[in-house]
Design a protein that fits this description.
The protein contains 12 helices and 20 strands. The protein is α/β, with parallel strands linked by helices.
Length: 410
């Protein structure tokens, strides 16, 4: 399936965003660790969250997380401390995403894990048992999800956990999110400099509400920035959010979008554009990189983006994918160093018929959707990939006046 998108002349709508995927996935693990009987409120309905709920509801010892990287990391750590024999597998792409640092660390803490195919990559066979814990060292520049997976199970370890982080910490707000949520469930954590210490202690069951997803909000910011007339209300978003991607408020302010906080959410309004060239280090908000890369190109704002190292091990190599697909729109981007993506304004001829490939990556589909405002002959292949994080994305677009023409894949 492919979509050709016909945009409206203006955008005035109110959107109810899905619950945060990041918060939902952590809440499920913490609910399980606390042996809670409370149902999590406003839990995300996305595929990445559903694979975890399905795993907890399953009678099988084989779990297929498909393309959900968070589920692979969190479940592997969780199951290593649950008595029994478990197999965790995923999609072809998931079996290409490295998990060696997490497995090595878990093993040194007393876990029994073996690789079923290639060393360092899923699928995994896990023989769950009580973990001893102790002091370990972990490279923090690969994935913050490894750190979150470890500290969530740390209170259940016999000796607790002293985790020493080496090199620059990527996506630090996600670790702070995990820490804050663990504290909500009654666990105390000490994070001093590059060391996180968690003593053995019980979790406390609590009622938990999942706030709406700021990552999902980013696409509506992009629409407002690019529309000649627009005013979009996003329900439920709060000023003091746990999510690092809430920094989008400040970033899109330079691209001409004002955020007005209201009683039940926010309103996005157009304002003057400040940026002549956009510089930003996305080390703390890697999931926003695709949105801003596409938006800046469409707004003819050259950019220099750094801190993108983790994009290469996501659902696809997102840097390569962005360079390839934006070239179809006539924008020539360059990866000048590892983790750095630049556009100096260079243009090339556009494809006669523009077909955006999504690479089984939800954020490719959603970040390129606003390009329909500038390119009439553009199609998005496999739009169904949005189910991974924002299943109602296309429905919400139609609610805003966009028309979707469904065709066979190109």
């Amino acid at each position: 399936m492919a979509y050709k998108i016909d945009p409206p002349q203006s955008l005035f709508t109110t959107i109810t965003l899905p619950g945060s995927k990041s918060i939902s996935n952590r809440a499920l693990i913490l609910n399980a660790l606390s042996l809670s009987n409370y149902e999590i409120e406003n839990l995300s309905l996305c595929e990445d969250t559903r694979v975890i709920t399905d795993a907890f509801a399953s009678d099988s010892n084989v779990f297929d997380v498909r393309g959900a990287g968070t589920a692979m990391r969190f479940l592997s750590a969780f199951l290593s401390g649950v008595e029994g024999e478990w197999i965790v597998r995923g999609s072809t792409r998931m079996h290409e995403r490295p998990i060696l640092p997490l497995v090595d660390t878990l093993t040194s803490l007393g876990a029994n894990i073996e690789y079923l195919e290639r060393r360092g990559y899923p699928p995994l066979k896990i023989k769950g048992q009580k973990l001893k814990g102790g002091e370990v060292y972990l490279t923090a520049s690969v994935s913050s999800q490894f750190i979150s997976a470890l500290i969530m199970i740390a209170p259940t370890m016999e000796l607790g956990l002293k985790l020493n982080l080496e090199h620059e910490v990527m996506s630090k707000p996600y670790i702070h999110l995990t820490q804050k949520m663990m504290e909500d469930y009654g666990v105390r954590i000490k994070w001093s400099n590059d060391t996180i210490t968690v003593k053995p202690q019980p979790y406390t069951p609590v009622r938990y509400y999942v706030e709406p997803d700021w990552s999902a909000a980013s696409y509506w910011y992009s629409f407002v920035a690019l529309m000649p007339e627009a005013e979009v209300r996003l329900k439920g978003l709060k000023k003091n959010s746990l999510q690092g991607d809430a920094n989008i408020i400040n970033l899109f302010s330079d691209l001409g979008v004002e955020t007005v906080f209201e009683e039940d959410g926010i309103m996005l309004k157009k304002k003057a554009i400040k940026a002549k060239k956009f510089f930003h280090n996305f080390i703390n908000e890697p999931d926003l990189a695709q949105t801003f890369t596409v938006a800046c190109c469409l707004m003819n704002i050259p950019f220099f983006f750094s801190g993108l190292q983790t994009l290469k091990i996501k659902e696809t190599d997102r840097i390569v994918a962005l360079i390839s697909e934006l070239k179809k729109l006539g924008y020539v981007l360059r990866e000048t160093e590892n983790g750095i993506l630049e556009w100096d304004g260079e243009r090339c001829l556009t494809d006669e018929t523009i077909v955006i490939e999504t690479y089984e990556d939800h954020r490719m589909a959603m970040s390129f959707a606003p390009a329909s405002l500038k390119f009439e002959n553009m199609y998005i292949n496999h739009p169904e990939v949005v189910s991974k994080s924002y299943p109602s994305f296309w429905d919400d677009m139609q609610q805003g006046g966009f028309k979707l023409n469904e065709l066979d894949n190109f």
